[in-house]
């Protein structure tokens, strides 16, 4: 355990008991313009990622509660399992949850425990006491036998999978406690300090990473997952690894939180800048990987009447020349990222319509958003 926040758990968490587990529910996504999903749990890393900020250290990752390593402690479903669903399974929420499975607070337990899977007749989504026979477990592991690994566009950490497995192994209690690895209880985080050495500036179109020091109530460093929050996401975008991207000039407050504790805000100034241009070819490489996939903005599944599997010239026309169907805004307005619905869907946690894209997965990496931002800033040309 180190004094810097790191999220990739080093503990091996799932043994042979999980190797034959079954699945959750495959979810063809349906949302508004700008959706991005991935079928193999990977995230593209294209484009340049330079930036200017007086800080040092390795970029942290983030996500929902991520118990892993350390001395076993006590967890419960509302405090340790539900936050994983809430942060990572947004497609299974709202008025029309994917596959008819709601993982929303107050609904997930009844939808999972002792409920037969709609994809695997005769198999329960969660079999209390038996993670290896629970349909949920295989679905959150790589290469499930039916459909895609969940969440689409990302994957749960080892610690998160271990927490879900431990809950099931303990009998899947609704309110009772179960033994879990350290890191899952809110009380273990005492203070979070974003590590900066002075005033923070980020140039429009550039990226820079931040780190945070997390300590427990005794002042000892702990390794937990952080949630980074920008007070104005169309000015400064921060991804799940704490990497900042300047979107438009302005001043914002940045915080990091975990376990019910939030850091003191850090003021970040985004300074006007003319970054290097990105091309539509680079953007298309991103959309081919993240958007033109089964169940997401392809032929037959066209939320917002937007298809990313079209020929390049037709896709460019849909993005640049056609307005968004869900809101009165262009999908992409050349030189105006803050008035481009595509950017709204990618960087706003709560866009005007629907959910942040990619639905069901981690928010887009700052390096990916940077490519799209630079293309828009340079005129959104067909090149």
List keywords for this structure.
about 15% strand; 8 helices; five-stranded mixed sheet; three-stranded antiparallel sheet; Immunoglobulin-like; disordered N terminus; 3 domains; 12 strands; flat; alpha+beta; about 375 residues; single chain
Structure description:
Keywords: Signal. It comes from Nannocystis radixulma. Residues 1-21 form the signal peptide. There is one protein chain. The chain has helices spanning 77-88, 108-112, 135-139, 158-169, 280-290, 312-320, 341-347, 366-377; strands spanning 73-76, 177-180, 191-195, 200-203, 207-209, 211-215, 227-230, 236-238, 243-246, 250-258, 261-262, 266-271. It is 19% helix and 14% strand. Helix 5 runs antiparallel to helix 8 (366-377). The chain is of the alpha+beta class and 383 residues long. The strands form 4 sheets. Strands 4, 7, 10, 11 and 12 form a 5-stranded mixed sheet that branches. It has a 3-stranded antiparallel sheet with strand order 5-9-8, covered by helices on one side. A two-stranded antiparallel ribbon has the order 1-2. Mean pLDDT is 76; it is low at 1-71 and 182-187. The protein has 8 helices and 12 strands. The chain folds into 3 domains: 66-183, no CATH class; 187-271, Immunoglobulin-like (Sandwich), CATH 2.60.40; 280-377, no CATH class.
Helical region count? Answer: 8
Number of domains: 3
**Structural class from helices and strands?**
alpha+beta
Number of strands: 12
C-alpha Rg (nearest Å) = 21 Å
Largest sheet, strands/sense/barrel: 5 strands, mixed
Termini Cα gap: 47 Å
Kindly estimate the percentage of residues that lie in beta strands according to DSSP.
5-15%
Q: What is the global morphology?
A: flat
Instruction: Indicate the low-confidence ranges by residue numbers.
Output: 1-71, 182-187
Work out the helicity level: 10-25%
Pattern of helices and strands:
EHHHHEEEEEEEEEEEHHHH
Average pLDDT over all residues: 76
InterPro entries: Invasin/intimin_cell_adhesion
Keywords: Signal
Protein name: Ig-like domain (Group 2)
Region (Disordered): 30-77
